[in-house]
Amino acid sequence: MARGAATATLRDMKRSRHQRTTDTPRGLPAPRQAVLQRELGPVLLTLYGLGTILGAGIYVVIGEVAGAAGLLTPVAFVLAALVASLTALSFSELTARIPDAGGPVDYAREAFGRRGLCIAIGWGLAATGTVSAATILTGFERYASLFVELPALLTIALVTLALGGVAIAGMRESAWFMAITTLLGIGGLAYVVWVAAPLMGDAPISIARTLGEAVGDPGTGLLLGLFLGAFLAFYSFIGFEDMANLAEEVREVKRNLPRAIVAAVVTSLVIYALVAVAATSVLAPDELALAHAPLVAVVEARDHPGEPLGLISLFIIVNGALGQIIMATRLIMDMGRDRRGAPAMLGRVHPVTHTPVIATVLVTTAVLVLALFLPLKTLANLTSTIMLAVFVTVNASLIVLKRRGQPEDVPNVPRWIPWLGLLLSLGALGAQALLAGLG
User: Fold this and answer.
1) Per the domain annotation, does 215 fall within a domain?
2) pTM (predicted TM-score)
3) CATH code at 155?
4) What is the pLDDT of residues 185-221, one digit of tens each?
5) If you compute the radius of gyration of the chain from its CA atoms, what whole number of angstroms results?
6) Residue 289 belongs to what domain range?
7) Which of 49, 167, 249, 415 is within CB 3.0–4.6 Å of 243 for a Cys-Cys bond?
8) pLDDT averaged over every residue in the chain
9) Is residue 289 within 8 Å of 67, Cβ to Cβ?
10) What is the predicted pLDDT for the residue at 35?
């Protein structure tokens, strides 16, 4: 009890520090240093989260999922969403319990109090954001080459520096940029569904028949393909965890952030399921798997122009990269500010833009170097592994904190949810290790 009380007291002191400094009126000097500003409301926050989830995933990963799950591709996305939603619900309670920019780093500190573990989680997450942004920008260059003839190095450099500038300009500016590009991305996906709509009427019957065959005769391999497709589709839902790092920039954070996380995951599920039904209604799964740009191939197969969708995909790809840069900078800022494994200078926030400029410059530079000079396939696989390990830690943190007590002013997630999220994340890590061992 004494340990729990001490932890609560320290947490309250930190909350009051953030509240005092955050509430400083504009135009007056901050008590000690400039801080992040609470500028994000529920709508803008949900669009930001939806953009981080959509990212470049659905425009590319649907071909891989279709190659594994076949006509059960929509079911694979639903299964993946169920797995991801468990950890998303754990995040929804933790962001209200501990509304700090460190996200999983602060959750682990409150639950386990181990400095080494917190530092490892912080730098691991920062690395995943940096590598992920570099990987996304490499993909951007390949799509951009379809429209503009520029050297690859120049394209990557210009886009990376532009995104760094947007991230420095301010959180509201970054969120509006992501909201606009997210709406463009959703518009592109709606275009795919509209084009395929005349052929989607028989999809429910076809899916139900195939699912019945898979369950009734596991020897067909359909069930194994479904689970493999769900495993691949799971990564298209990753991104909601980035919202946790905006906790100090959200108005009425204990109410708005948990709701926004759930809304973003549910909305992405609806979009993914509709697009999966549309794609498999137009093209055979094997054709989707072989297509360089699967959704462009879908609309072109219906004799509609694919260029608008290809152009929109550029915006949503940029969207995903910006979200990763912002996530990494907030983590590094929180670590530097609280003296947890990063130099204090990285924790500084600019008094005009209210953004961590030094941390943003560091992350942007690292993204540029990775995108220009390093092969990223192995690093991208490592990113997924680190993310699953973080999900294990997040669910374990909530299990420990719920044992200590349940605050009245935060969402009360049932205890079985973090337990199941923990087990499923461990299972996915084990599956990855098994696949790596089998080559």
Assistant:
1) yes
2) 0.76
3) 1.20.1740.10
4) 888 899 999 999 999 988 888 888 888 877 777 666 7
5) 22
6) 39-427
7) 49
8) 79
9) yes
10) 61
